[in-house]
Batch of 2 targets.
Target 1
Amino acid sequence: MSTSKRHQHMPLTERFWVAVNKHGPVPKHCPKLGRCWTWTGSTNRKGKSAYGRISAEGAATLTSHVAWFLATGEWPTQFILHKCDTPLCVRFSHLFQGSYQDNSDDMKRKGRGVNLRGEAHGHAKLTAKQVQRIRTLYATGEHTMRALAKQFGLASKTSIGFIVKRQQWK
């Protein structure tokens, strides 16, 4: 019998704690929080991060919400945010409730979810100086987009078009 079948008739509290590892990582940015208690059960893939999930009250529920419920006796009314920045963490002392704006502010403050532009973007192939040079050269009328793409190691003239029209590298 599979683990999930074996556990499906257990109370939520028991099903929850059987899938929690209390020996998770210590957050590097805030070691005073202590070890994360990481969820080892089912996850719900979302973006780059996987969040734990468990069936509660007949629906798949985020494990951070279940951890909140088990600690307070009430289901959260807002987002559950992680002080530790570990999406699989269910340690109540690492969690706090907040609004959508609180979540956005928390991500920005911690350098996550930031819309990086220009050279700071991980996929940037050009520097700001090269972009300015491309615009200058194209403005002279002596260089085609295809020639500039080749000169600056880009796969197509389309990228040059976006640059000179300021649709990229605004």
Target 2
Amino acid sequence: MINKTEQHLDLPSPAPGTTRSLRVLRYGSDNDGPKAYLQAALHANELPGALTLHHLEVLLDQYAVDGKISGQIVLVPVANPIGLTQFIQGTHLGRSELTSGKNFNRHHANLTAAVNADIGASLGTDAATNVKQVRAALHRAIDAISPKDEGEHLRLSLLRLGIDADYCIDLHCASEALMHVYTSPDAWPQLAPLATQMCAQAVMLELRSGGDPFDEALSAPWTELATLHPQAAIPFSCNSCTLELRGHSDVNDELAHVDALNIAKFLMRVGCIDDGPGELPSACCDATPLSGVKYVRSTGAGVIAFMAELGTQIEAGQRVATVVDCYASGNDARTDYFAPSSGKLYARNRGRFAQLGTLLVTIAGDAPDPNRAGTLMLSD
């Protein structure tokens, strides 16, 4: 008998005659084993994750039939039905809300202060008790927030689903990119096998990158509460990450099936599936600080000619792109762009026309930049 339930969580209607809902799949029981939460397409036009979770659902159905679900696994194959419908003249604009301009993967609730005010004084030396207290307080903090619009309602609904998970994988993709991961320093030891299993080519670490993305809303309170209460036993209990499944155009059954298999192997390693994952392959990269990432942006408009391929180890001062202004002639038409520091070129723009300020390439550097602060991610 398959141990699977399906639920549809309705969002408030944005207009008469219109309803939207989240499809939530649950495997296993919340009484046994660890909980893993996976969602895809929070940026609704980033579709590799949605197809990957489709393939993972097929795998999990069979594991459930075989009685091999040993924890609780929650899937939300499409985490953003609002952005899923945002098309303008055939172009899918799923990264930000058209009504407010807000990035769907920013502005998630920062719950640390509310939880600390609720239970900070009662946190003691019993780790298991503290974990239960913190998770209950996190749920109360979410429930105390009154959403002002459909987008906030969506954000809170997703937080409720994942806030008590031991592991959270938020599936995204970049414009044109290698497989890469964003996570926190405290989560990295537990999530390193995931990055290795997926053969991630870059891993960036930061507690809070700015803007309150989804994965940090889940994981950061644990680190911050432990810092506020060093005398208490507060184990880090939500290993959350953003897993970037290459680029926008890397959407096909073959890749999605392999990615789903590798995610399933990670779920085996952490005790959510009772099966053998096999030998862990060798890591494809080391983790580096998010503040070491360098973004090379255009200072003028024109056609982009890239001078380095994805995966290239870049040296400081190396030319990475040229932008050609076709209204000019000869060398006057060409503006070269150079790497500000060394590192791996792991993402670049899939478009080939630059406007003023267009992001051209992204480079993962080994060393943190002490001059970078505030919002470390690509955009708000």
